[in-house]
Specification:
The protein has 15 helices and six strands. By secondary structure, the chain is an alpha/beta fold. A hairpin with a 4-residue loop joins strand 5 and strand 6. It starts with a strand and ends with a helix.
């Protein structure tokens, strides 16, 4: 059965990628950098142009941001969480508020939750929208969010144009979506400074989880790992025993929180605040062609929803 679809945008990831890709020499009339903002505007526009279908109801589209100090939840568990990352460049940081302004003017809103990351807000929204019979597409490049997919959901990376459906997760990672957090806890995640088990890679982690289903299942049957039919199984058993505390810690970091007390749940798109959006695009010296496309999409979308 076809269901209405909601689009949840990992805004931080898209803005970060835009900052790397778009010309850093672009500035607004006051000389402030705007390359990330212009790139984010392009990504949003391409997304809505491709998702708004004239024969379907208005979609839910929400831009989800990391809250200021959004790592607090996981840093309380592990102070070195993402501790290997340098601070954001100032030229990027000062563009985040205007990216939120853009999302709000486009009618998508800008959601976050204090102390938590965009992943956790997305996880909470997925559960809420699923209960309302909405299938979900998560717009991101981060593999962590694959753990949220249900049978009708999608993971979409706009930078690469790649899509993962529920069944594709196993083909890519060797495990089902519900096992991705366990898989990451075993392999570790260098990008987030999550330790995992030194010496256990993606294939071995997937093999262990296919056999024992979860980290709890692995440790409940740790003696059986010794006899598993892959090279180095006795060594892997020893590594798991040695690093159990680290694995348990990593598992708390890789699991996305799905029960945040969010004050709102995004509703179907209600329209663009064209005055605010046009004013922002002109202020940051967006290309006239980009402004014309936004205006055309806004007018067409309003006509369809009338």
């Amino acid at each position: 059965m076809s269901r209405d679809r909601a689009w949840l945008i990992d805004a931080h990831a898209q803005i970060w990628r835009a900052w790397h890709v778009y010309d850093k020499g672009r500035t607004d009339r006051a000389g402030r950098p705007v390359n990330a903002l212009l790139g984010f505007a392009d990504y949003l526009l391409a997304l809505v142009e491709s998702t708004w279908l004239p024969d379907r109801p208005a979609p839910v589209i929400a831009a989800v941001f990391d809250a200021p100090c959004g790592r607090g939840h996981r840093q309380a568990i592990y102070p070195d969480y993402k501790g290997n990352r340098p601070p954001h460049p100032v030229d990027l940081t000062e563009q985040f508020p205007r990216c939120r302004e853009l999302a709000e003017a486009a009618g998508f809103g800008a959601l976050d939750h204090p102390g938590f990351e965009a992943d956790d807000v997305i996880g909470t929204l997925v559960g809420r929208l699923r209960s309302r019979e909405r299938a979900v597409t998560i717009v991101t490049g981060d593999k962590d969010l694959a753990q949220l997919l249900g049978p009708d959901d999608r993971w979409y990376n706009p930078m690469r144009g790649t899509v993962m459906a529920y069944g594709d997760v196993k083909r890519r990672f060797g495990v089902m979506p519900g096992q991705v957090a366990d898989w990451l806890a075993l392999t570790g995640d260098v990008a987030d400074n999550i330790p995992g088990v030194p010496g256990i890679g993606p294939r071995t982690a997937a093999r262990l989880l296919r056999k024992h289903e979860s980290i709890d299942g692995i440790y409940a049957n740790l003696s059986a790992v010794y006899g598993m039919k892959f090279r180095g199984a006795p060594r892997v058993q020893g590594l798991l025993a040695e690093h159990e505390e680290q694995v348990r810690l990593s598992r708390r970091l890789t699991e996305i929180v799905c029960d945040l007390p969010l004050a709102t749940t995004p509703q179907p798109w209600q329209g663009v605040d064209w005055s605010a959006l046009a004013g922002l695009l002109e202020q940051v010296r967006a290309d006239p062609a980009q402004i014309e496309r936004w205006e055309a999409w806004s007018e067409a979308s309003l006509a369809r929803s009338a």
